[in-house]
Amino acid sequence: MKYVIIYGGTRKGSTYNCVQLLLNKLRAFSGAETAEFWLPRDIPEHCRGCFNCLLQGEENCPHFSSTSPLIGTMLEADGIILASPVYGLDVSGAMKTFIDHTCYLWMSHRPREEMFTKVGFVLSTAAGTGTWRTNKTMKNALSYMGVKRIYSFGSSVAASSWTDVKPEKKAKFERQLTRKAEKFYRASQFRRQLRYRLHTRLFYLMMRRMIRGYQEESLDKQYWQGKGWLEGEKPF
C-alpha cells in the first residue's frame, strides 16, 4: 500500500506528531510505503484565480511545476492523508492553497478515475476548538474528487506545543489512532471492493446532466465526452 501525506504546515507540532502515531501503525503493516509533502514548502505560491487550470488545462497553471509532482504522487497512491493544524477555526492557509490548486480535479470539472478507488484520511489538532470544521474542509475536497471512503481524527490538545500535551492525552490519541489506522489500512487493501458512497453517485449524475448543457468548446465537456460519460459510460 502506498500512502501520501500532505501537511498543512512545516511546524512539527501536535498535528505532525499525531500523524506520526498514525504512520507508525501503518508502517507496521507489511508493504506500507509513505511519501510526505510539506506546505507551503512544496507549493509556495497562492492560487491566482486565473482560471487557466479550468479553461485551458492544468498544465497551463503558472504553478504547474510545483503542483504536478504532488498531484502525480497523490494519483499514484492508494491512500491520501491530509493533515492541518487549526488556524482561525479552519485549515491553514497553505492547506487551503493546495485545495485551491486541485479544484480542476473535482467532479464538477475533470475528475480523475484514479481518485474513485482511493481511501482518504483527514487529521487536525487544535489548542482549543475548530477541528470539526477543519476536517470538514479537507473531507469536502476529497469528496468532490470522488474519494471512495474518508476517515477522520480531530482533537483539542489543550496545549500550544506537543511537549506540553499531558501524557494521558497522548496515550488516548495513540489508542484512537491505532484503531483508525487498522480500519484505514484494511479499507486501502480492499478499496476496489468498497461500495461507492451515495454522495459520489448522486453528485456524478448531477454533474453529468449539467455538463451536457455546456458549450461544445468547454474543456470540461470535451473531457467528459472523451471518457464517454455523457453517453452513459461510468467511471465506477
Summary?
With 236 residues, this protein is of the alpha/beta class. It contains 8 helices and 5 strands.
Structure overview:
The chain is of the alpha/beta class and 236 residues long. The protein folds into two domains: 2-194, Rossmann fold, CATH 3.40.50; 196-236, no CATH class. It has eight helices and five strands, in the order E-H-E-H-H-E-H-E-H-E-H-H-H. The protein has helices at residues 14-28, 52-55, 64-76, 93-101, 131-144, 167-189, 198-212, 219-227; strands at 2-7, 33-38, 79-85, 119-126, 149-156. A five-stranded parallel sheet has the order 2-1-3-4-5, with helices on both faces. Strand 1 (2-7), helix 1 (14-28) and strand 2 (33-38) form a beta-alpha-beta unit. The radius of gyration is 18 Å and the shape is globular. It starts with a strand and ends in a 9-residue tail after the last helix.
